[in-house]
Amino acid sequence: MMSYRRERFASALRNVVAKLMRTELSDPRIRGLVSVTRVEVSPDLRLAKVYVSVLGKKGEQQSSLAGLRHSAGHLQSLLKKHLEFRVCPKLDFRLDEELKESLATMALIDKVSSELAAKDAQAGKDPEQQSKLGQDDAAGKKNEAE
């Protein structure tokens, strides 16, 4: 868990790095929609892991990541001008795989729920009636307990 100071520092870094990436970088390798999803800062504030999400194909993602890593030094010099901190961290760009994993999880949940709905439809049960019956049963058991 990050301290309040590190969280504030990471938040400020995320905002400034995202702005600088949009306005100051002109590397042709950086293609597609690149966004900074989160920043993790080391306890001594000397290293910042910058997680980026790149919309595009795998090749475009790798190309954009290579362009960002190549531009890290330039971004660090620009950060020194924009941030009034004693320390300017070394930027380490990484692809954020959490977004891809969460999308895969959501797709899996949607698939399972649609399969359950299809199974209920085959059995001749209406899912809305099932939920109403379940609520009525719960209310009846509650009244019996009283």
Overall outline:
elongated
Query: Major β-sheet, in short?
Result: 3 strands, mixed
How many domains, as an integer?
2
* The CATH fourth-level homologous superfamily of the largest domain: K homology (KH) domain
Q: What is the level-2 CATH architecture name of the largest domain? A: 2-Layer Sandwich
From the helix content, strand content and strand pairing, which structural class follows?
alpha+beta
Beta-strand content bin: 15-25%
Q: Tell me the total number of β-strands.
A: 3
Low-confidence stretches: none
Give the mean pLDDT: 83
The radius of gyration is 24 Å
The name CATH uses for the topology of the largest domain is: GMP Synthetase, Chain A, domain 3
Helix content: 55-70%
The SSE string, one letter per element, is HEEHHEHH
Q: Which CATH class of the largest domain is shown?
A: Alpha Beta
Terminal Cα span: 46 Å
Number of helices: 5
Please state how the strands of the largest beta sheet are arranged side by side: 1-2-3
